[in-house]
Amino acid sequence: MLGKKLVTAQKRGETRALCLGLGMVACSMMIYFFIGVTIVPFYTKSIWTSETVCKLLKSDIKDRVLCPNSEGSEDEGIFPYPCLQVWVNLTASGKEVMLYQTEDTLRRNPKCSYVPDKSEDSKEVKAKIEKIVNNFKKYQTFPCYYDPGGTQTNVILSRLYPLNGLLFAFLWPTLMFTGGCLIIFLVKINQYFSVLSAGQ
């Protein structure tokens, strides 16, 4: 009687462990799909792929400009903010070009090097822009990214999704997938040895 209870408990434990492993594998595949349709296209479509060194030439804060928070936004999505323009000397070509924060900055407003979020108030934006200007004056040379194909003559300070960020995004689903497969493998090995010992 006790042996039957132990066998039943063992089977329940194996079933739960197997469901856990399959669930982990299924969740990791869903995360892989989500990353594949959201982050990977931004990484592959970015043309600013080569890193070089930029030297600051000048940084100006123009009058307040109006810019939509996103493409196709309505009037309530338009907000005023000081327009920061940063010009640098591109070491790779020796040209004077405009620097943007990321690829998205150029898409949202090609006139300004930095576009704040709509959620930030005017004081926060002004303080942040002044801090950015001071950092540029402090660090005259810094790494930046340019388009080696020459399609875009401007440069960006940082990529939205760099290679190390993309690899880090794939790390957690990979660990989950590996853990799920390991659990399934151990359950199957345990079942095999159980059947083998019962036959003997």
UniProtKB/TrEMBL annotation:
Subcellular compartments: Membrane
Highest taxon of the lineage: Eukaryota
GO MF term (any one): potassium channel regulator activity
UniProt keyword terms in alphabetical order: Glycoprotein, Ion channel, Ion transport, Membrane, Transmembrane, Transmembrane helix, Transport
Protease in keyword set: no
Gene Ontology CC terms, in alphabetical order: voltage-gated potassium channel complex
Transmembrane segments: 20-43, 166-187
Keyword Glycoprotein attached: yes
Record's bilayer topology term: Multi-pass membrane protein
Pfam family for this entry, one: CaKB
GO process annotations (BP): detection of calcium ion
Alphabetized InterPro entries for the sequence: K_chnl_Ca-activ_BK_bsu (IPR003930)
Family affiliation: Belongs to the KCNMB (TC 8.A.14.1) family. KCNMB1 subfamily.
Record-given protein name: KCMB1 protein
Name of the gene: Kcnmb1
